[in-house]
């Protein structure tokens, strides 16, 4: 299953939990509400990591493009350094999403 498919399922589950948590019957059942609340928080964290991943991915692509347009060696070296940092950050975020 692709990561986008997983994320869409998570978004759907979060939306469903949000509806359930707004239900007065569920609110009156403290244990059930707490269970939903914990799961809602977990899903929110996963989605936050994924959103950060998407931001880093976009920044990575923009930096790569800017580097290909650059002709000065000093700037190319800076771009390469930034690309390496973004690669590491991207991998860390992928791991966090996969672990969750």
Give a short synopsis of this structure:
With 100 residues, the protein is an all-alpha fold. The chain has one domain. The protein has helices at residues 3-22, 24-28, 30-69, 73-99.
Strand content: under 5%
Helix tally equals 4
User: What count of domains describes the coordinates?
Assistant: 1
> Poorly predicted ranges (pLDDT <50, ≥5 residues)?
none
What is the straight-line distance between the termini?
15 Å
The shape, in one word, is rod-shaped
> If you average the pLDDT, what whole number results?
89
Tally of DSSP β-strands: 0
* Element string (H = helix, E = strand): HHHH
Which labels suit this protein?
100 residues; mainly alpha
Topology:
Elements: H1 3-22, H2 24-28, H3 30-69, H4 73-99
Helix pairs in contact: 1-3, 3-4
How would you describe what is shown here?
- The structure is a single chain.
- The radius of gyration is 20 Å and the shape is rod-shaped.
- By secondary structure, it is mainly alpha-helical.
- The chain is built from 4 helices and no strands.
- It has one domain (3-99).
